[in-house]
Amino acid sequence: MKPLILHHYPLSPFSEKVRAMLGYAGIPWHSVTVREMPPRPSLERLAGGYRRVPVAQIGADVFCDTRTIAAEIARLARRPALDLARCNAEVQAHVQQVDLEIFLACMACANTPAMGRRLLRSMPLLDIPRFLWDRVNIGRKASLSVSLLRNPRRVVLDHLEALEAQLTQDFLFGAQPNHADFSTYHGLWFLRDMGGSSLVDGFANVSRWMDRIRAFGSGSCGDMESAQALDLARAATPRRIAPQDRVGPQIGRQVDIEPADYAQGRTRGVLAGASATRWILAREDADLGRLQVHFPKAGYRLTPAEPQRQDQTPPG
Fold first, then answer.
1. pTM, to two decimals
2. I need a labelling partner for 180 at 20 to 30 A (CA). Which of 68, 110, 187, 312 fits?
3. Mean pLDDT (whole number) for 18-24
């Protein structure tokens, strides 16, 4: 069986969401550590212009966004509650809020001396101003209301109070975790465990719940060089797309897919598949051959590629 490869970096909150999920699921995986900011040449060959981290890979199939990565983990581990598309409307609404508004508020509140020290240890000194400028540019180009960050501390405290009342069982929606637990965890992990913030300290239920998630660890992981991940993509054939997902007016056409909110980065390819929750782009790399890049529909937009730049042949 082809291994699951995660392209990530240690301080990435959304990578921690996936790492904790892998620990809970008990799936062995391979770790490719990437830079905290572009350029990431090897990852760009796999995922095109998509600039977010983490990205997962299974052979020649590449999974962008934690929603599609979680769906793959759910499939491999036979734990459907990890797949957000299989959760109920209440869980989906919760995740939509924590993955955006609450996440951004936690990032703003994690600007602490402890976080500064971690940055100094995690990257070369010359990269730090570049990293900070990169994050400023993400904020400037985001399609989000600035009102989300007017009072991030109040947003976080209101969120913690709601969680404290909700946690009457071991996990947010019952005795076992689902996708919402890991989505809620990663922003608070960055705030408490990476940033050293004391905001969580006064919330006993939340602290115990975070410790339960952290206790899952990251599972069985082995390091892999990016060149090895590219070799595996080169040697593999993309997975078969179900016939019902190869029907529609845009199938076979060249399109662009990008996030609709922040950290926009456009990936171009031929639309090879479209399900109720996912788009699949076929991309051709001169060295790697054919790749399939998977995106969730939620939070992303698909547009036709500009006619003058149509340089790929639809799959036959």
1. 0.91
2. 110
3. 98
